[in-house]
Amino acid sequence: MQISRHISLKIYTNGSIRAPLTLHHVKRAMFSTCLVKLTKRKFDHTNNIDTSRLEFTKRNELIVHDLNRFYPSMSDLQSRNPDMTAESISDQDHDNYKQITVKKFLDTFEKNPQRLNGEDDYKSFLQLNGRIKNIRYSGKKIAFIDLFDSRYNVKIQVILNLNKLKQETSEERFQEVVQLLKKGDYIKAFGIPGFSESRSHTLSLKGTKLPVLLSAAQYPLPSQLKDELKARKNRVLDYQVNGVSSLLLRSNIIRLLRSFLDKQEFIEVETPILSSKSNGANARPFITKSGSLNENLELRIAPELWLKRLIISGLDRVYEIGKVFRNEGVDSTHNPEFTLLEFYERYLSMTDLIEKSEDLFKHILVNLELKKSEYHFSPAFDNLYRTLEQANWKFRRIEFLPTLSQELNIDFSLIDLNDAEKLLESLPAHSRKELFENVPPGELSSQQILNKLCSFYLESRYCDTIHPTIIFHHPRIISPLAKAHPSNQQITKRFEMFINGKEYINAYEEENCPQLQEKNFQLQQFSKETIKNKENDELISPDEGFINAMKSGMPPVGGFGLGVDRLCMLLMNKGRIEDVLPFGCVDDVKTQ
């Protein structure tokens, strides 16, 4: 079929009629139109023109001239008409609308279809607060607003139909209010529960009054935020775009820790963060200065000695979940500020502590398993749950020195572990070369040698598994606050628990003899003074105040410590600690 080169087209422009155009003219016109569109696209791209931002910019000009209108007081709204005017309404009219959350609305009507039975409920007048997720228009008289609840990640459709409002509202007023709303605004909506008139028959809040603007957004949020670096540097934006599920899960984990201890009648306490001397762990403290006292103070590195003072004071079981501060570097599992759980209970043995640790993990995992659909746990969580369930919720166990003796083919029971030189000489040549080749003689303490041996031969070889594994009976020289083994004074009633090579729990029977505790402090101090290096500088210092408190009578005590942030990393399947901290690590916090 041939196409005629002449096409009779009558084009009306300003009322005039043009002569017929040829196909050549049409092609040229089409080409010119496409060229204009392409040029405009290119211009928009290179100049980053965001039409949504332009819309916000125009409204922002109105906002600065009427701040109270766009950011009203909730108290003031109770005496104002909900169409954002200053006209008063009667208390009776206002009270007719029952306040309900988006989640409660869905729980009431979506999960219980018989409540509405597919019909609008003209007797239930409700008011909902929420954030606008999206706005759609159908002509000039109908608007559809998705009202969002970020905590539960749920939304409800609000239908505004000018013809079905209870208020007498002009079309101009309807347009003025509705067109002023933007995505990201917080509003209060009024209406009845019902269904859309479309084929989908969507559960909705069918508006009976114009919504109230509670707070106006001044710029649009991006539709997505996948760049991890940008997300870490702006957590407020990250949570708004990607949701707050990580915050909610962390909160739930901490709540489960508390509930486990509260059910056993532990007393939650708060101990000092600032003191003249921090202690209770091997770490370097942060030092600040008090203006009123005109002296230096240190931020606590652990609450241990304060909590044990409370046990001495008369409490039988105490715990604290709080921040500790250690002046160290940042890496995938360390942040200078982190959250620690410590609890102490009278009359517990090391075996009791192990069993309590197993019970704690069972309590957390079983309760989180019930919320799998809510939090969408990773396969790692399932693996941990199944592994412990199959093991009857028991941890694997290896003993420190016997396992180390087996690995190195030497008998550590015949070696004075307090003598660093003899300890180093007793090691096989291949071990000294692999672990300590570049360290000059006399520059390593016993603590450093034993910790390195434990890390290399025990933690990496026996604890790199999803099945929680404990190393128990640590040498006394690296456990200055732990009770010595009754039949072997070189080791203690202490254990650490590891999962996939990372430490989660450190627990032991506490030393309660003042003289032996003082001796342990002195051994640590001697090591600090004779071998000067960074790690030795972080060893525990003597605490005379604590020794004096012990002399008034300290009962047998079992103590337990758990890194809360690492536990969250494990259960949330996060590879870096900043991913479970609300605002990231200290280097992320600086930029926010």
From TrEMBL:
<dbReference type="InterPro" id="IPR018149">
    <property type="entry name" value="Lys-tRNA-synth_II_C"/>
</dbReference>
<dbReference type="InterPro" id="IPR012340">
    <property type="entry name" value="NA-bd_OB-fold"/>
</dbReference>
<dbReference type="InterPro" id="IPR004364">
    <property type="entry name" value="Aa-tRNA-synt_II"/>
</dbReference>
<protein>
    <recommendedName>
        <fullName>Lysine--tRNA ligase</fullName>
        <ecNumber>6.1.1.6</ecNumber>
    </recommendedName>
</protein>
<dbReference type="InterPro" id="IPR045864">
    <property type="entry name" value="aa-tRNA-synth_II/BPL/LPL"/>
</dbReference>
<keyword id="KW-0547">Nucleotide-binding</keyword>
<feature type="domain" description="Aminoacyl-transfer RNA synthetases class-II family profile">
    <location>
        <begin position="249"/>
        <end position="582"/>
    </location>
</feature>
<keyword id="KW-0030">Aminoacyl-tRNA synthetase</keyword>
<dbReference type="InterPro" id="IPR002313">
    <property type="entry name" value="Lys-tRNA-ligase_II"/>
</dbReference>
<dbReference type="GO" id="GO:0000049">
    <property type="term" value="F:tRNA binding"/>
</dbReference>
<dbReference type="GO" id="GO:0004824">
    <property type="term" value="F:lysine-tRNA ligase activity"/>
</dbReference>
<dbReference type="GO" id="GO:0008033">
    <property type="term" value="P:tRNA processing"/>
</dbReference>
<dbReference type="Pfam" id="PF01336">
    <property type="entry name" value="tRNA_anti-codon"/>
</dbReference>
<dbReference type="GO" id="GO:0005739">
    <property type="term" value="C:mitochondrion"/>
</dbReference>
<keyword id="KW-0436">Ligase</keyword>
<dbReference type="GO" id="GO:0070154">
    <property type="term" value="P:mitochondrial lysyl-tRNA aminoacylation"/>
</dbReference>
<dbReference type="GO" id="GO:0005524">
    <property type="term" value="F:ATP binding"/>
</dbReference>
<keyword id="KW-0067">ATP-binding</keyword>
<dbReference type="Pfam" id="PF00152">
    <property type="entry name" value="tRNA-synt_2"/>
</dbReference>
<dbReference type="InterPro" id="IPR006195">
    <property type="entry name" value="aa-tRNA-synth_II"/>
</dbReference>
<dbReference type="InterPro" id="IPR004365">
    <property type="entry name" value="NA-bd_OB_tRNA"/>
</dbReference>
